[in-house]
Design a protein that fits this description.
Largest sheet: 5 strands, mixed
Pfam families: AhpC-TSA
Strand content: 15-25%
CATH architecture: 3-Layer(aba) Sandwich
GO molecular function: antioxidant activity; disulfide oxidoreductase activity
CATH topology: Glutaredoxin
Protein name: TlpA family protein disulfide reductase
CATH class: Alpha Beta
Number of helices: 5
Shape: globular
Number of strands: 7
Distance between the termini: 52 Å
Radius of gyration: 18 Å
InterPro entries: AhpC/TSA, TAT_signal, Thioredoxin-like_sf, Thioredoxin_CS, Thioredoxin_domain, Thioredoxin_ResA/DsbE_sf
Organism: Candidatus Paenalcaligenes intestinipullorum
CATH superfamily: Glutaredoxin
Strand order of the largest sheet: 5-4-3-6-7
Order of helices and strands: HEEEHEHEHEEH
């Protein structure tokens, strides 16, 4: 994250805290939208991509590295969930180099979106709540961009699926409500 972007986000958070009369820093889970959606990471081609477009649908963000054995072990499970949950977005953020990630993907294919944070991604994880900076680190966001669950360490696939099921249901209910609002004559 650039120094300028970090300072802008810090100033925004300080302003929010001041407006609410708070003197303590706000937890990322209490903010209207997680700071994650204001970040950008490089894609595999080296182009910076904003995370903001992921708002609006439940999202699973997994910080990982090619040299992290538990990260590598859980990737097939995350890939399977990506296939099983088309209404949930999956994002991998590599705390690694683009070169290492590209070589890794030749051995273990992943179809969900992957971005490169480099080793500076550890600082980003800490800012998002992973104070020790350990890997893997997974955040589950609801459709409104709020942290729904934080997992430090390897995921338990069954437990994560139990977390995702209600998010899918909530997303489906929102879609149904939107359809009724868009077509009020359906209720008549």
């Amino acid at each position: 994250m650039s120094r300028r972007l970090f300072l802008q986000q810090s100033l925004s958070l300080a302003t929010l805290a001041g407006l609410g009369g708070l003197s303590l820093p706000l937890s990322a889970s209490l903010l209207p939208v997680s700071p994650f959606f204001g970040l950008h990471f490089d894609d595999r081609q080296g182009d910076a991509q904003l995370m903001r477009p992921y708002l609006g649908k439940p999202t699973v963000v997994n910080f990982w590295a090619t040299w992290c054995a538990p990260c590598v072990e859980e990737m097939p499970e995350l890939e399977a969930m990506h296939q099983d949950y088309p209404d949930i977005q999956f994002i991998g953020i590599a705390i690694d180099t683009s070169r290492n990630v590209i070589r890794f993907l030749e051995r273990i294919p992943v179809t969900y979106d992957l971005y490169i944070a480099g080793h500076g991604g550890v600082k980003t994880m800490r800012e998002l709540g992973n104070k020790k900076g350990g890997l893997p680190y997974t955040l589950v966001f609801n459709a409104q961009g709020r942290v729904h669950q934080e997992i430090i360490g390897q995921i338990d696939a069954t437990a994560l699926r139990q977390t995702l099921d209600p998010l899918v249901l909530a997303q489906a209910n929102e879609t149904i409500n939107v359809n009724f609002v868009d077509k009020p004559d359906v209720l008549a």
